[in-house]
């Protein structure tokens, strides 16, 4: 893989309110912005996979923090697609983590819609950012793990029932 695939800037972001958010990976490669639209679970899986990969890589000294980059993303880029499958790899000659993404509508043997290489520092930052973006969503029910919204939560672990105040139940029986 050549150096022209190095990510000049890379990040994940969520757009919208919790419960209705959309997620994307934004990257500038060779001066062009790519927007890879993802599901929340894909963002979470990418973050975890990056963290696990960094833990398993051979130690080459301290991880150099990613340099602050002031390049602006072109958020209206025509290079946008919804990801179907992603692959992570490692270029040991250049000590770079490789991300490859395929369009959801592509065939198995089609070329990847997006590929980039990033430093360990960029990968560490992206993994941490993915965890923060995912965690910023709706709180999860401690019993069933489902996301909870502003309306009362119907928990399958409680047989789909709300917790009722005894006074409310007694008042209903008197009617």
List keywords for this structure.
24% helix, 6 strands, alpha+beta, Secreted effector protein pipB2 fold
Query: What would you call the quaternary organization?
Result: single chain
Rg calculated over all Cα atoms: 21 Å
CATH topology of the largest domain: Secreted effector protein pipB2 fold
Low-confidence stretches: none
Note the overall shape: globular
CATH architecture of the largest domain: 2-Layer Sandwich
Our measurement of the CA-to-CA distance between the termini, rounded to an integer number of angstroms, reads: 75 Å
Strand content: 25-35%
Q: How helix-rich are the residues, as a percent range?
A: 10-25%
Instruction: Work out the count of structural domains.
Output: 2
**What's the total number of strands?**
6
- Output the CATH class name of the largest domain: Alpha Beta
- Order of strands, widest sheet: 1-2-3-4-5-6
Order of helices and strands: EEEHEEEHH
Mean pLDDT: 87
Number of helices: 3
Structural class: alpha+beta
**Mind summarizing the main beta sheet?**
6 strands, mixed
Structure description:
The chain has helices at residues 40-56, 120-135, 166-174, and strands at 7-15, 22-29, 32-38, 80-91, 96-103, 114-118. Helix 1 (40-56) runs antiparallel to helix 2 (120-135). A six-stranded mixed beta sheet has the order 1-2-3-4-5-6, covered by helices on one side. With 175 residues, it is α+β, with helices and mostly antiparallel strands. It is globular, with a radius of gyration of 21 Å.
Write the layout of secondary structure elements.
Layout: E1 7-15, E2 22-29, E3 32-38, H1 40-56, E4 80-91, E5 96-103, E6 114-118, H2 120-135, H3 166-174
Parallel strand pairs: 3-4
Antiparallel strand pairs: 1-2, 2-3, 4-5, 5-6
Helix pairs in contact: 1-2
